[in-house]
Amino acid sequence: MAPSKRSKKLGSLSSTRPPTIKSQHAALSSKATRTLIRSHHQLLKARAQAERSGDEARISSIDAQIQANGGLESYQTASKIGQSLERGGDSSKLLLDWIKPQLNEWNTSLPKLRVLEVGALSTKNVISRTPSLEVSRIDLNSQEPGILKQDFMERPLPPADTDGNGNGDGERFHLISLSLVLNYVPDATGRGEMLKRCVKFLTSNCPISLPPTLFLVLPVACVDNSRYVTEKRLLEILSSLGFELAQSKRTSKLIYQLWNHTGAKTPTKSFKKEMLNPGHTRNNFSIILKKG
């Protein structure tokens, strides 16, 4: 029997999130996948801290460690495998199951529902094959046609709807997907700003009875094993942004949530980094949300 091909070490660090992986990477074990992702996240957090303190020597050292681990593309490969059918499947399948009752109202005489998929990995997932949905896909390091290379935090904001007549609605979305995206943002304030920004990109002018919707997927450790975030605190943060929890599901690794936006356009309350679950084995995932 011919020896199996070893996957080649992938290239240099660029920005974030993954290209399409080739089939030979599928042999990467689940343990190796988790280790690579965890290591990359830890290095990114350390790099963000070094940037805040202006420690250029530390930044260079961390960049070298990231490169030694295979760079961004190795992380991206692991992320893609982590969402493959062998590791729990395409998260948009669950999203589609949750909104199917509303999508059944749609017919070809109606405009399609606009979906923004942040951190998109593929143009072939379930929501991309749904006739009633028009999916816009963005990613910081897109390497697949059909996925725009763009930072969501730098995407131009839609015009303000000051007259209540849907001004700028063509640049807003009925649904935004953040599947394993929020946890990748390297600092707590940035995560809060990302959630605030989602509200600005949602519209309630929908041809069917689907409210403005956010699909959020996080590692379950972000709410079960963090010093600073619990599932209750996540609920409080999203509620302050005008969201109501419509659906929730847990697996051993992930938490999936569907949020409907029904309230305020800006946060009604601030949330700081506050110790909720002390313990030396817990992680430091946190979300800082500033009012207004």
UniProtKB/TrEMBL annotation:
Residues 1-30 are annotated as: Disordered. Its EC number is 2.1.1.-. GO terms for cellular component: nucleolus. Pfam families: Bmt2. Keywords: Methyltransferase, Nucleus, S-adenosyl-L-methionine, Transferase. InterPro entries: Bmt2/SAMTOR, SAM-dependent_MTases_sf. This is 25S rRNA adenine-N(1) methyltransferase. The keyword Protease does not apply. Residues 16-30 have a biased composition (Polar residues). Its main location: nucleus. It is found in: Nucleus, Nucleolus. SUPFAM superfamilies: S-adenosyl-L-methionine-dependent methyltransferases. PANTHER family: 25S RRNA (ADENINE(2142)-N(1))-METHYLTRANSFERASE (PTHR21008:SF1), S-ADENOSYLMETHIONINE SENSOR UPSTREAM OF MTORC1-RELATED (PTHR21008). Belongs to the BMT2 family. S-adenosyl-L-methionine-dependent methyltransferase that specifically methylates the N(1) position of an adenine present in helix 65 in 25S rRNA. The keyword Transferase applies.
